[in-house]
Amino acid sequence: MPPSLGAILRTPRLRLRLLNGADKLDTPVRWVAVSELTDPTPYLEGGELLLTTGLRWSHETDAACYVRRLVDRGVAGLGFGLGVVHEQVPSTLVEAVARFGLPLIAVPRPTPFIAVGKEVSRLLAREEYEGLTKAFAAQRQLTRAALRGAEAVVDRLGAELAGGWALLLTPDGSPLHARPAEAASHAPGLAEEVRRLRELRQPASASLAAGSGHVTVQPLGVSGRVRGFLAVGSSHPLGSDERTLVNAASSLLSLELERGNPATSDRLRGGLLDALLSGAVTVSGPGTAALRAALPAEPVVVVAAEESPAAVSWGRVEEDGLAAAADGRFTFLGSARSDPGGRLAAFTGGPVGVSEECGYDRLPEALAQAERALEAARRDYAALVRHADLPGGFLGLLDTPAGTGTARRLLAPLRAHRSAPELLASLRAYLAASGRWDAAAESLGVHRHTLRYRIARIRELLPGDLDDPDYRAELWLALRMAERE
After folding, report:
1. C-alpha 374 chain-centroid distance
2. pLDDT at position 290
3. Contact 166/151 with Cβ under 8 angstroms?
4. Angle at 285 between CA 125 and CA 316, to 5 degrees
5. What is the pLDDT of residue 67?
6. Cβ 355 vs Cβ 373: under 8 Å
7. Residue 177 is inside which H or E element, if any?
8. CA distances (Å), 22 to each of 6, 26, 101, 322, in order?
9. Which of the chain's termini has less CB crowding within 10 Å, N or C?
10. Domains assigned to the chain
11. Three-state secondary structure string covering 116-160
């Protein structure tokens, strides 16, 4: 909620003085505007504290018309700067604001208008921060309530809506649970709207007036299947924070109503995991607090294993994480603190690959790491391989069956030669020295002419051009891979 006129007046450093409107100190101020126009209303939206020095005021100025236009526009108050043009507020203006009930504030000469604007901006930012903090706390409470079932979510939502109510309905509109309990009496009055929403081809929410209040009805379910409805009532239209809270409750209730079907639950968890790992869904930005609170705590790891009944069963009972199984691969996302990779390997006997610890902004990279670690586990017949223990850099990326095979093919002409050890060692020294003959020969302990002869022989055996930097880079990586065999 925007700061009130009284809150601004109570700021000591501004030294503002109220001249009229003591009964309207709770008027919200949405912004500060400065104008010397005799009719600034075309440039106002309403709710502003308007500041002026009276630069264009004269004895002929119609103060009554000026103030009436401001009141009709919904201006929160008028601040008059003293000591710039006028030492005192013109008496005609004092009389006009008293007549029309517009709050009037005297702004002393030492107080610049921009200081008033900054203070209102600060108060607005504080209000917004407090609102977001409250909303996030409420969403956390909703998420915790979801662990106890749908009724607990409805109870928590009803408690968070000051003076409001929450009602969970079956697909046909019958009341399932209400907070407070008497809110169940609203169900008959919503029956027609529930019927209309149920017959829509695409699920949609609805807002309607009910007596002196407002009611919002949202369908619950996933994949277009309506499992029930959530009705929320209040004496006022829901604000943005309240709408966010209702949406979060609807999502949690939809998931809760689907939990009775294990196959559906698996699809939900798997679909969310796929979306997170592909980057299609993120958990940063507005409206994601409830989702982040329901996910494993950071840092997280991605675990990859072969799809098997044991792995799928293990993933189904692991509540602190998301699991998916498809195309022969089992994937799990869990908190690094609980070591899901180690527990899965102990349960299935491996092979299992585990990514490095990361945040939710690096999940696609973590998936690639887990898959690489799984390949290493298969190659080395290991139950568990962690990506952090594998070589890094480009060599680490090449440490796959495909990379090893490519390295062997590149060096095959030299390996087949009867002097293979000497030729491979000479090529490595030559590349390491960037083609400097003396340095390369010294590292080998041979004469530079001997090295020249060997490199000439290598050029004859290899199909590529040794002067091509791309080819030299491939040969260097192949030599480094050969050292690992």
Report:
1. 29
2. 65
3. no
4. 140
5. 94
6. yes
7. strand 175-179
8. 9, 9, 10, 58
9. C
10. 5-121 (3.40.1390.20), 147-258 (3.30.450.30), 265-390 (3.30.70), 401-484 (1.10.10.2840)
11. HHHHHHHHHHHHHHHHHHHHHHHHHHHHHHHCCCHHHHHHHHHHH
Q: Compute the radius of gyration of the chain from its Cα atoms.
A: 36
CA dihedral 276, 281, 285, 290 (to 10 degrees): -70
Whole-model pTM over 0.70: no
Q: Which residue has the tokens 């109220």?
A: 18
| 401-415 helix and 469-484 helix, angle to the nearest 10 degrees | 100
User: Alpha-carbon distance 388 to 372, whole Å?
Assistant: 11
- Average pLDDT by stretches of 10, the chain with 485 residues: 87 92 91 92 93 82 90 94 91 93 94 92 77 68 75 86 87 88 89 86 77 83 80 82 82 74 56 80 68 82 91 78 87 92 90 92 88 85 86 56 74 88 89 86 88 90 86 82 67
* CA separation, residue 370 to residues 306, 412, 480 (Å): 12, 31, 23
Residue for token pair 């490595």: 428
d(CA 80, CA 53): 6
Tokens representing 306 are 């072969």
- pLDDT value at residue 304: 94
Place of tokens 């790891």: 301
